[in-house]
Amino acid sequence: MTDVGLTAMPSQGLIGGSMIGLASALMLLALGRIAGVSGMAARASRLAADGAPWSWAMAFVVGLPLGAALIAAVVGPVQTHFPSSPAILIVGGLVVGFGTRLGNGCTSGHGVCGLSRGSLRSIVATAIFTAAGIATVGLMHLLGVMA
Amino acid sequence: MIRNVLIALLSGALFGAGLAVSGMADPARVRGFLDVFGHWDPTLAFVMGGAVAVMATAWMLKSRMQKPLSAAAFAVPSLGLVEVRLIIGAAIFGIGWGLSGLCPGPAIADLAFEPRSALIFIGPMLLGMAIQRFAFLRGRPSACAGQMLARSRKPS
Description:
The complex is a heterodimer of chains A (about 150) and B (about 160).
Chain A: H1 10-31, H2 37-44, H3 54-74, H4 86-102, H5 107-117, H6 120-143
Helix pairs in contact in A: 2-3, 5-6
Chain B: H1 2-22, H2 27-34, H3 43-63, H4 84-100, H5 104-109, H6 115-135, H7 144-153
């Protein structure tokens, strides 16, 4: 059980994960592109020199909250517990934006698309961002910083 | 072509739906996965397992295709070498991920549930992307860090 009292949900995880895999498979097999969210977000906001056509990137980005809202409407409320501190959201956002572009990808591009392809770059990137995330959460606990 | 825009929209919507179903739209659950020394939540591992299994099949299908079903050609990154830039970028991303429990996909999907908090994250995220882009353009004073990294990649 997590700090906010969430219990593990392996079956929803597998089902939702397969949906994410299907979404990425659709992007690859129909449009020939990687469904990497950091790349798509940068492209949609005209912050990337190359990548998918702007209209595809924008449509993909707009689809994310639409699909999430559809689940909430059809299946039921979706829980979210955001950090209560705006400072953590702001610093987290800055660092995530800078790091994902410098490292050419995030959890979707390197994690889902890269790992499944056996890409060495993605395996290394995923291992490093996961380790850095674990270290950060551990350090915050040690210092008594609440997210 | 409007059909391809709709396919991209469908892909994004399915992705966002998957995030909502799997619990990954919740930053606390993602931080729970990273909290291996505290109250660990393994859910993210199941999400990644399911997604990777489906995508591995897609890569197998792709290897038998000349071109994508609805576009002129595949445009996927080449399987390059590991560079210093990749390692530093991934480490920086991981720090922000652990700090907030958010990565780009869930942050954008959460516009559906907590638009105010999501925007407080997404605004700076786009700013961070812009800073990265302009810091690494060649021929600018601010490109210093980028050039140092580029040099460190070349054997001297």
